[in-house]
Design brief:
mainly alpha; Helix Hairpins; 2 domains
Length: 207
């Protein structure tokens, strides 16, 4: 089923800002069909209406159950599509397959699991990249300190104990840099391997 395109409702949905409950202005001027549609495209449970009703009751505004559920049903037709399910899983968001009509749940759940698999693979890649970046930052920091130590060792008035301590620190920093450089080599190879695995898996999924 093709995703629905309702520009006017989507524009209003964005204005709601993703809040679980509604502000006074949203309660007074809100279109309950629009509010329901927004909750639907987010895959929120029908119990979300209870939160809206409680929020709007404070301003003397009653909910329009019929219009809300009509809008939510249309929104769910977007949320419950396989492509949406894949993107939800790939983004690492929790699914709400139970909110989908029974005839859409199986396909939704299957694509969600595929997306979740890609999310896990991309998260591993992100972790490796983070480790590489951290090592590179530490190597640069160590190199700056090594440069300062070399400058200090050239001083003619440097005492024996100070020289000994600086040489010890110098050797430690060099060893640390060598270890991180070796580690980066392993990380780069692992990163390349995981990128290849990701590309293959995406191809398996027709993406």
């Amino acid at each position: 089923m093709r995703l629905l395109h309702l520009p006017l409702l989507l524009a209003g949905a964005l204005a709601l800002g993703g809040c679980a409950s509604l502000s006074k202005d949203q309660c007074l001027g809100g279109d309950w069909r629009q509010i329901g549609f927004y909750d639907g495209i987010k895959g929120l449970p029908s119990a979300e209406l209870d939160k809206h009703a409680k929020a709007c009751a404070e301003y003397g505004v009653q909910t329009d159950f019929e219009r809300y559920h009509a809008g939510r049903s249309k929104g769910l037709l977007n949320y419950c599509q396989p492509e949406s399910a894949f993107q939800e899983g790939r983004a690492g968001r929790a699914d709400n397959v139970a909110a989908c009509p029974p005839n859409l749940q199986r396909d939704f759940h299957g694509e969600y699991r595929r997306g979740a698999e890609i999310y896990a693979m991309e998260s591993q890649i992100a972790n490796l990249r983070s480790q590489l970046s951290s090592n590179d930052d530490n190597i640069r920091s160590n190199n700056r300190r090594i440069h300062d130590i070399r400058t200090a060792l050239d001083r003619s008035d440097l005492g024996a104990d100070a020289r000994k301590n600086l040489l010890s620190e110098f050797n430690r920093l060099v060893n640390d840099n060598n270890a991180m450089t070796r580690d980066n080599g392993y990380l780069h190879r692992d990163l390349d391997r995981r990128y290849d695995m990701l590309r293959l898996r995406l191809r398996d999924f027709g993406r």
